[in-house]
């Protein structure tokens, strides 16, 4: 009977019975807990995209609009410049001579105009005038007035005598009338001379004013043209490219002589795939993994989405949306406190947190990818 018992079911159960049944039950309980937690535990779903650090404003190309010989160069690679700093001076040649001549003529014309204003206002003091032309003109005018005044005095005396003679009957009425006519003629000639001279000076003053207006406009135009021969920096920034011009070399209109990268607030420009763009929104946090800084040592930079292009960009069979992000810090630090600044041109991988999904949803999505025949990867 004992030999037969070895071949019974009870014997086999007793022989192979697990000595640690709690392991089985622990596994079952853990499996149940995992299944229960699948809809509860949520994880972040993120998308990665390549990006680069750049200034908010575009780089500025320096291009002269004139041609000529270079007189002065103050540019060099990696040199910091301020808005208004002189970068290049081109010889203006004949333009400078024209401006100098026009300025001198304007000064002379202004002096003549000043004299004419005094003469028209009744100032008859020769020493108060500044130009030889109107000093001479005033002297000639005063001489003619003096001659007329002398004739006036002589004729007035003669008229007085003739009147007395006519009253006494020794001078005929005709002689008296003749002397009276001559006296009135001198008076009229004097007044005509004054009016003609005043009219002449007024006309000259108006012509001088018109000439001055035209000349001021001409000088302004020349100065504007001259300004094109002095090339200045339009922005604060750093010269990143320089053509290598030197003194006495020649430049031509439209030639790029330098490129200035603006000292502006930096931003990150990322390219996001069309499949992920629906989850990206302004204000969304972004983590930045810089290629030049090992994230295991330096950590991740922080940024937030500030702008999203409305139009898709297609380049070399690749399509993407440009997303611009505002940097929330300008450096990364090691544990010992050493900080590395974030510089323009640094490449990186941007991690966009798209959404939160439960483990159950992720598992269902994976199964759906396997079994849904309608889903096709492009």
Automatic annotation (TrEMBL):
The chain crosses the membrane at residues 22-41. It comes from the Bacteria. The keyword Ion transport does not apply. The keyword NADP does not apply. Gene3D superfamilies: 2.40.30.170, 2.40.50.100. Residues 60-241 form the CzcB-like barrel-sandwich hybrid domain. Keywords: Membrane, Transmembrane, Transmembrane helix. Residues 266-349 form the AprE-like beta-barrel domain. Pfam families: Beta-barrel_AprE, BSH_CzcB. PANTHER family: EXPORTED PROTEIN (PTHR30386:SF28), MEMBRANE FUSION SUBUNIT OF EMRAB-TOLC MULTIDRUG EFFLUX PUMP (PTHR30386). This is HlyD family efflux transporter periplasmic adaptor subunit.
